[in-house]
Structure formats: structure tokens, C-alpha cells
Amino acid sequence: MKQDLRSYIDDLIKNDLMVKVKREVQPRFEICATRKVVEKKLGKAVLFENVADSKFRVVTNLIGSRDILAMLFETTREDAVKEFDKRSKEPVLPKVIKGSSDQYVSKTGKDVDLFELPVTTDCSKDALPYITGGVVITRDPETGIRNVSMNRMGRKDKNTLKIRSMPPQQLGLIQEKAEKMGENLPIAVAIGTHPFIALAAATCLPFGKDELELAGALFREPLELIDCETVDLQVPAHSEVILEGEMLANVREEEGPYNDIFQFYIPVMRNHVFKVNCIRYKKDAIYQTVHSSDFEGVFLSAFSHEAEVYNALKNANIDVKAVSLMPMLLNCAISIEKKFEGEPKRAISAAFGAFSWLKLCVVVDPDVDVFDIGDVWWAMATRASYRKGLMHITDIQGWPRDPFDLHQSKLGIDATAPLNQWNEFERKIIPGVSEVKLEDYLQE
Ligand SMILES: Cc1cc2nc3c(=O)[nH]c(=O)nc-3n(C[C@H](O)[C@H](O)[C@H](O)COP(=O)(O)O)c2cc1C
Ligand SMILES: [Mn+2]
């Protein structure tokens, strides 16, 4: 399978899952605003071909909808999580290949200029333009084991980024080790990669597991890497832009505010500083950006947890059809083929056990589309009993960053119809809806 961003973009175009924007757009707000409307109205990826003050194109929404995921995993929207789960059980070691050096423009030292990149500013109070579509690669200085994560990076000046990486996030743990040894931590950032790489980077693996083996698992073949030029690290071959440098020991600077995954502004915090000593990019590079709180940004974090929930239900011998943690990560909708009354509550318990951050879990019948919140809402209104079907758990572990004690409780809702009453609860069907092609009907 092709491992580069460009082949993936070709696939998106072939499957009518990408739009191109040819008019000039501003990286400050306009790219994000346009991206949002494309996501909402079309559910497609976007390639901005003409970005003000930049020679690079910008791509975003690379995994901006369930239809795109179905294409990526060559399956249905419902089964993408099963495919992720199946593939991720067989890690594949990456392999280093010889990259052709003429593929990249390379600049080091004083020539590094991060203002060459069309880094976007997304929200009104964001303190800086933020790099968000990069995977951060480093090695544990004690064990030499690689770690890969996604981290926001605010552009401060030509060669300085403010980077957020606090323990227990593993980049933070590794940086702490380097700092105790009195050393800066070498890191590399790959921007503009195939989405399997970002999906692997955003997955929380146990400390000491290399996320690039998960990327290989998703590709079902070794991920190809190339050597960095100035640090002893490797990055995915075919990356569009590569940054190399160091996280400085014993240096912290105020960073933020920045729009976060829950659509709030993360307050100003003292965070790390990343000095960029080398930048490499393809001559006609495609710069990737991810907006934190829309489908792509949330989904990158949600997908592996959907797989955990799916697994927990399967292990409990529940006939699970589909799972969604979107659009909020803390909420979950699950469709099951119910075998007995009380099984939906078992499903809710299993889901809460699998992923502690979950706060609300709704179980529906298979004729309800868990990817359509309107449909889930319909089941909650028409099939749920709030006398029999509720599970309210108080004082239980939830989302950890919770100063107002909002997230340490959970609600489960059984919104499945009573068994053996299908005549009463069968949904009406309009034959032919899925076959209607509007363009056949709306011609003059
Ligand atoms: C777009 C995006 C941006 C992220 N930014 C940050 C960040 O700035 N700081 C952070 O701690 N985690 C961030 N995350 C979450 C981490 O990437 C994620 O928890 C990852 O699993 C951490 O890797 P680790 O398990 O090796 O620590 C981000 C995730 C995404 C998808
Ligand atoms: Mn890790």
C-alpha cells in the first residue's frame, strides 16, 4: 500500500471525498472557517491551492468524516473500527530506507525560517499560529525506545516553537528524563503524512511501545523511514515537511490560550520550548493542519477508544454493530442486537469499564445510526424508559482535568425497544431512499 500523503489525496479525489479551493485564502482564520463549512456541509477533505504569502498548499480534514474512514479502511463506516482493531493486534516493525536527498529543500541554523510555512491561526483568542498536523518523534534517552505523539506547537519566531507535552503524556515523561540528565531532548516532527501515521501517533500505547509499529500494523507492512539530517532519529519517508531540533532542558515559557478539543480555550500555561535547527520540505510541499475540536481533531483521539469499547463489548459476548465516541469523545453511542432485557446495561457497564473518560453512554437497536446524533436522539425520545432504562453512577473516575467536578459521574441510557414488541417499534421505511441520486431528479 502506498504510504505517502499524495497517493492518499489521489484516492480521496477518485472517491469524490476531497474539494479543492483555488481562490486565495488567508492562514489566519479563513482556512479554518472554510474547512469547517466544508466539513459540515460536505464531509470532505480540503486542499487549499493558493494560500496568501506562502508557496505551499494546505490540506486538512484528511480524515474528516466516517465516509472517508470507510475508504481508508476499505470497508463500511460501521466496520472501520473492527478493521482498526484487527490490524492493530499485529504490530509491524518499521524499516529505514535510503531517501533521495534531492527530494527535499534543506535549511539549517540561521537559514531556518518557520515563517515559510503557512501555519494557521484557527480561533479568535489563540495566542499564536499553531502547527497541529505534525507527528512528534523522539527516543527515550535511557532505553532508546521511540515515542511518537501529536502535540500542538505555537510558532513564536523563525526557529522557536512552544510545545505542550506534560507528563503523563509520554513525550513529557521522556523530556523529564532527559532534563534530569541535564540534556536537551532531540525531536523530529513530520508534517503532511498518510493518516495511518497520525492515527497511530494519537493512540495511547503503554509506555515503551513504538507507535510506528502500530502505523505498520495499519498499513499491514513495514512503515518506511528515512534518517534525519541533524538528529539521530528517523521520520516517515515521503513526509512533506520535516522539522528537527531539541526541546530545551529547564526552559519553560507561557503558552496559550489555545482552542482545545472540547471547544474551550486552554488557559495560559508554562510549557516547553522547541528550538528548530533544521527544516526540510518538498519543493512543492503540502502542509497539513488539523483543527482540534472538529471531526478530524477529535476522531484522532477517539478512534482507538472506540476500538477499546468495541473490544470490551465483544469480549462480553454482546453482538455489537457499531460504536461512536463522536463528536465529543466523552459521549458514546452503541448499537447492539439485543438478546435479552438487561443486556444494554451490561453494554453500558462494559463501555464505562473500557474507557474511564466516558460520561454518557446510550445503547440503541441496530436500525439506529450511531453516527447520526439526530437518530440517537430519536431513539432516546421514542424507545427509552427513564424509569427502567437509566444507570446513574455518581463519584466515579472520569476525565481527569476537572476543576469544577463535572466529569466524575456517569449516565447510561438504554434506548432499545422492548424485546418481542417489534410490531410496535418497527421504524417506517421509505423504499428507494438510498438509491436516489439527486442529480437525476433535479435536472432542468
Ligand atoms: C491534533 C492533536 C493535537 C494534540 N495535541 C496535544 C498536545 O498539545 N499535548 C498533549 O499532551 N497531547 C496532545 N494530543 C494528544 C496526544 O497526541 C495523544 O494523547 C498521544 O497518544 C500521546 O502520545 P503518548 O501516548 O506517546 O504520550 C493531541 C492530539 C491530537 C490529535
Ligand atoms: Mn507513546
Summarize the structure.
With 444 residues, the protein is an alpha+beta fold.
Q: What features would you describe in this structure?
A:
The protein has 444 residues and is an alpha+beta fold. The chain folds into 2 domains: 76-290, Pnp Oxidase, Chain A, CATH 2.30.110.10; 316-419, UbiD C-terminal domain-like (3-Layer(aba) Sandwich), CATH 3.40.1670.10. The protein is built from 12 helices and 24 strands. It has helices spanning 5-14, 30-42, 66-72, 80-88, 170-180, 195-201, 211-219, 295-315, 343-354, 373-382, 422-425, 438-441; strands at 18-21, 45-48, 57-60, 95-96, 104-108, 130-131, 134-139, 146-150, 153-157, 160-163, 185-191, 224-227, 234-236, 241-247, 253-255, 258-259, 265-266, 269-282, 286-288, 320-324, 331-336, 360-364, 390-393, 410-414. Strands 5, 6, 7, 8, 9, 10, 11, 14, 15 and 18 form a 10-stranded antiparallel beta sheet that branches. It has a 5-stranded mixed beta sheet with strand order 20-21-22-24-23, with helices on both faces. The chain has a 4-stranded mixed beta sheet with strand order 1-2-3-19. Helix 9 links the parallel strand 21 (331-336) and strand 22 (360-364). The model has no long low-confidence stretch (mean pLDDT 97). Bound molecules: flavin mononucleotide and manganese (II) ion. Manganese (II) ion binds at residues 147, 170, 205, 211.
